[in-house]
Amino acid sequence: MKKALLLGTTGIAVALAMLAFGFVAGNPQTAKADTAQPVQLAAADTKIDRSEVEGIIRDYLLKNPEVLLEVQDALEAKQKEEQRIAHLGVIKDAKEQIFNSAFDGVVGNPNGKVTIVEFYDYNCGFCKRAIEDMRALTKSDPDLRFVLKEFPILGPDSQKASVVSMAFHMMKPEKYGEFHNALLGGQGRATEAAAIKIALSLGADETTLREKMKDPSIPQAFSKTFDLANKLAITGTPSYVVGNDVVFGALGQEVLAEKIEAAKAAL
Predict the structure, then answer these.
(1) Tens digit of each residue's pLDDT (9 = 90 or more) over 169-179
(2) Which positions ≥6 away from 67 have C-beta within 8 Å?
(3) Going by DSSP bridges, is the β-strand pair 105-108/239-242 parallel, antiparallel, or unpaired?
């Protein structure tokens, strides 16, 4: 991946350098020109020896390969900043949907001052490992509100398990944390059958549960979440929204704790 990025950067560097060399080669006196006078070039003035310029560029890059890394770092920094600014706009416009959707389960302090939102899939191995991060963070910070946003992207089993999950949440929101821990923290693949079994063990009535699973608001909620994820450039799980920041991947408790502290400081 890094090689591909560097090759792309090389192409950009070469293109820009060629333009620069072409301009200089065709206009040796341009730097000395009177800026108050328009510059007109004859067709012959714009002709340069392409192979000579390419040779100069090649020699320069071979002697100074660190330039490519500098360009790549600058490009990545620029892209990250553009993405951060875009995220700010999305979070501002969709604040209620992100942090206060009625379809999302909440663990930790439901009235906590700081909220962290996790986009997860019940069959995501990284999410299964990251559940310990959630438990540790909510245990150590009594002022943390942890929102669980269903984002089933790993196939039909994940989608069906999430339907059961959302139906159970409608019925018994006070026990949703237990359900979530049991299904995500359990062994084996999360399926509709596995999710129903857990729901029944926590006191859900099967007939009522299956009726709730047909509620048209569930697929509507999924659609809104997928649209939101697309706007936030979230393509994998787990991903988090903490304050005005979007965190991609299971980066661990320390990174999330730092983001939480930054969100607190911004209050």
Answers:
(1) 999 999 999 99
(2) 13, 60, 61
(3) unpaired
